[in-house]
Every structure is written in C-alpha cells, then in structure tokens.
Amino acid sequence: MQGEVTELLVRWRSGDADILERLMPLLYRELRKLAASHLRRSPGYQTLQPTALIHEAWIRLADQTSVNAEDRVHFFGICSRLMRLILIDHIRAKKTQKRGGEVDRVELDEATAGTTEAGQDVETLHLALEALEKLDARKAKIVEMRFFGGLTAEEIAVHLGIGTATVTREMRSAQAWLAREMGGV
Q1: Residues 118 and 68 in one domain
Q2: What's the Rg (C-alpha) of the chain?
Q3: How much of the chain is helix, strand and coil, in % rounded to 5?
Q4: d(CA 51, CA 57)
Q5: Number of compact structural domains in the chain
Q6: What string of DSSP letters covers 104-143?
Q7: At which of 71, 102, 133 does a domain end?
Q8: Beta strands 105-106 and 120-121, pairing class
Q9: Are 139 and 178 in contact (CB under 8 A)?
Q10: Are residues 1 and 49 in the same domain?
Q11: 151 close to 73: Cβ distance less than 8 angstroms
C-alpha cells in the first residue's frame, strides 16, 4: 500500500487533482489516528470530532492545485500541520465568541516536552513553534512531527534524512527552548 500511496502522491504533486478521491480510502484510518491524537492533546474540544477535523483538513488540501508531498510520511506531516492550524483557528474563534470562551489548556507530556509541569495553552504552543521555526526550522519540524503527528524518532529521521540520535538530541533541545519560551522554566 505504501508504494501505491507514494505513486498517487507523486501524481497529485504533478497536478492530478482527481487523485484525492483515490487517496482518501487508503489514508483514512491513519488520518483518523492523527486527528484523534491532535484532539487528545487539545482537551476541551468535545464539539470537534476526529472526523470533522479530517474533513476540514481534506477540504483545505483539495483547495490546493498540488501538494509537494514526497512520500507518505511527508504527507502526514502536511496533514498534521493543517490539523494544528485548524485547531488554532477553532481556539481563536472560540475566544472571540460573544460570551468570551476561555482558552483550553494542553499539557506537554514527558515524551514530547520533557516536563509535566503546568499545562500550556495550545495557542501559546502554536506561537512558540512559529518562533522556533524562524530560529531553527528543522527543530520545529521535529517537534511538530512528534508532538502533533505522533511519528517516532525513527520515522522522523527517515523523513528528514538524519540519524535517530540527531532527532532525539534536537527534540530535547527544542523541548527546552519551548519550555523557556512558554514560561515553563
């Protein structure tokens, strides 16, 4: 299946928009896991279901004339980023509601942040990741792929063409930077 997915992604990258209809059934189960992971890390979104998150991301993807997804892992990285941005949009909309919705909290767990101290808000994490991306795009990509995408260090290493030890080292460095940036240290 991975070979078929990669072939379809290459065709989509070359501008064949009809490929999306063939990709969805092949990728739906993994996209659902990805969406559920995002929602677990953003507590308080009982009104937002994984299916709705998948469909919103898919609609945004369908609006693209082509997506530069090199392979399956890269495609899920793109989807993960889209889902994160959708959640941020949802948070911002909730904050501007007439009755003033409060910002939901999300804790960075030990596997992804190196700390279990006070929860941090998703929007603050998003802004911190954007700042990290300006300083070190690869570290930001590693955090995004691990925290939001749920990829293992090995999968990230393959996708980025670096060693697993480098992924682990850069993840720890990024975690420390994010903790400082978000006021956790």
Answers
A1: no
A2: 17
A3: 70, 0, 30
A4: 10
A5: 2
A6: PEEPPPHHHHS--SS-EEHHHHHHHHHHHHHH-HHHHHHH
A7: 102
A8: antiparallel
A9: no
A10: yes
A11: yes
Question: pLDDT 10s per residue in the chain (185 long)?
Answer: 667 888 888 887 777 767 777 888 888 888 888 888 888 776 655 567 888 888 888 888 877 656 677 777 788 888 888 888 888 888 777 766 644 445 444 444 433 444 333 334 677 888 888 899 999 999 998 988 887 777 889 888 888 889 999 999 999 999 999 988 887 65
The reply to whether 42 and 120 lie within a common domain is: no
Q: 0.85 exceeded by the pTM?
A: no
137 and 66 assigned to the same domain: no
Helix axes 164-181, 122-135, angle to 10 degrees: 120
User: CB of 162 within 8 A of CB of 127?
Assistant: no
In order, the DSSP letters of 13-55 are: HTT-TTHHHHHHHHHHHHHHHHHHHHHHTSTT-TTS-HHHHHH
Tell me, what's the pLDDT at 10?
Answer: 80
- For residue 97, the model assigns a pLDDT of 62
Q: Is the domain of 23 the same as that of 90?
A: yes
Residues 47 and 8 in one domain: yes
Q: How far, in Å, CA of 150 to CA of 146, rounded?
A: 5
The predicted pLDDT at position 46 comes to 58
Query: Which residue range forms the structural domain that includes residue 8?
Result: 1-102
Say yes or no: 44 and 128 in one domain. no
